[in-house]
Each structure stands twice: as structure tokens, then as C-alpha cells.
Amino acid sequence: MPDPTSADETRPCYRSGAVARMIRMPVATLRIWERRYQVAAPATSPTGHRLYSAADVQRLALVKQLTELGHSIGSIAGLDAEGLRQVAATHATTLAGARTLPAAAPVLPWRVVVAGGALLRRLQRPTLQRRLGRPLDIVAGVAHLDDLAELDLPPAGPRVDVLLVHASGLHEGDLADLQAAARAIGAARLAVFYGFASAAIGDAFAAAGVALLREPRDDAALGAWLGGLCGEAAQTPAAPAEPIDCAAPVTDPRLVALGPVPERRYSDAELADFAGLSSTIACECPRHLAELLMQLSHFEAYSAQCRDRSPADAVLHAYLGQVAGAARSLFESALERVAVIEGLVPPSA
């Protein structure tokens, strides 16, 4: 039988967006739970909006907590409130009993040095860290690869398991530079999360034993890749980017009309923070916009480096960089508009 509840607890008053924020769950997941598993049965307002009661919110929060502890949603969706509490109590009893058992051998932390502000922010997210299978110890983190030279790690200090690098693009000569950086800090392995590279460069990195993953990847995919590195599993290098087709550029009057390309408004770290904000949009457009902006910015930087390193293609790469910069500027404006409409804090705030 359903639990007796007060009138206030059963009065529908919360819309789905508010409930999703309270229990830290995407609205799309909430609706899937309702449609497939009947986890909640919200009332419907005269205007067609779902309205949840306080009891509904408490139930959803408990179900979410149990799924995070390893229970499948299908196995607990049909339980009433008392049944859910009993399952939760079992976990509490088990944890209490575990305190009386002999201590297990300690799990050594995975010690990493990180180069890349956005990657550093993402590594601090609990949802990503849970996928690693062992504690994460960020020995040092720098916003840019060039800043690694400023690190003062003691030669006889604790080991560094891996140097994690976030690079917008990989070019000729980068492999030797990154390997030297890894040796300088005593890292046992080098791993690179990158945006763009030619097939030849990607093959050279893979042949040298560097772990590669091409962005964009969500936290689940990034966490799975890092979890494999963390467990010292054999890695299959990510497919390298296709080489850019350096056909002769054409004059584009639309770019001339746009004028000079403005500087970036948001750093990778700011965009990573924005992508992690909760949204009421079921398709998660704010997150996708932020990730697309990072990709455009990385390709813009990649084109500039290609122009410097390949004089014969200077005109082409200048054109590609201008196209990417113009698109990036337009998407930055779109991101600000979405932030205002959704009531989110824009990256520059």
C-alpha cells in the first residue's frame, strides 16, 4: 500500500525542469524513466505541463541514488517507498558491517600530470573519476603545454604514472617535444587527447606507444579511455584525423563582408564548465554548443599552426582559419543566447 502522506507532500507543484535540477538528472532521462518504467506518475496541468509532488521528488531521488549504487532501474522501479527504503537500508547495513572487517590492501592512486585547462576541469568531475576504478591524484596541472617547463617536480619525488595532454592539433615535431616533456617529469606513459592531426602524424604517435583519443568525446567515453589507461590495459589508438585536402582556396565574399575575425570570447576551461551545467532542454543543446565551440577553436588554432609550418599552403590555411574563426564567433553569440533563454550562467559571467 502507498505510504500515508500529508496533503502538502502529495500536492503537485514542481515542473519537470525543476525536478531534474533538484535530483541532478537530465529531463530526457526523467521522461524515459516515466515512460518505460512508470517510476513516477506526475499530474498534468491544464496547460499540459507535468507537475510533481514532494513525494514524487523524494521517490525519484531515492531511485536515482540506488541506480548509482549499482541497481538496475528495471529491478527497483516497481517498488513502493517502503521497499526502496529497505533496499537503501541494506546498503547502509553492509557498509556498517564492512567497517569491522580487516582492512583491504590499499589501492594506489593513479598519479597524473595534466596539460590543458579544459581537460583538467573535466578530470575533477566526480562522475568521470568514478569510471577510473582507482583514486585519482593530480600531481600538477597547467593550462598550456608550454607551462610544463615551469613545473618544479622533485627528481626523487613520488612517481608520475602518466602525462595527460589536451592538444587542439598535432604536428610534425610535437611527438619529440611531448616525449621530452614526459621524460622531464618522470612520467611512465604519455597520453594525448587531441582535436586534429594528419594520418601520418597519428600513425607516428601510435607507433611510439602514445595513447591517443580524438575529441569530441563525452565524459563516459573519456572516462572509459582513461579507465583503460589507469588499469594499464592495452589501448587501441583512436582513428587519426583525415588529412586536410589542400585544394586551391577561392575568394569568399561572405568572409570579406564579415570583416576581421574577433578573438575568442571563451577559453576551453570556461566552455567545459558551461557544458557541465544542467539544462531543461532535453536534447542538451547547451552542452553540444560548448563542445562544438571548442572544436571550432581548436581547428582555427590548428590551421594557424599549419600555415606557419607549411609556407606553400599559407593562403589556404589562412582561409581555413578565417572560416573557422567566423563560424566560431557566430556560435559564441548563439551560446550566449541559449544561456539567456535557459537561465544559465554564460561562460564570461
From TrEMBL:
Every HTH merR-type domain range: 13-82
Gene Ontology MF: a single term: DNA binding
Keywords: DNA-binding, Repressor, Transcription, Transcription regulation
SMART domains: HTH_MERR
PANTHER family tied to this protein: MERR-FAMILY TRANSCRIPTIONAL REGULATOR (PTHR30204:SF69), REDOX-CYCLING DRUG-SENSING TRANSCRIPTIONAL ACTIVATOR SOXR (PTHR30204)
The protein's name in its UniProt record: Transcriptional regulator, MerR family
Organism: Leptothrix cholodnii (strain ATCC 51168 / LMG 8142 / SP-6)
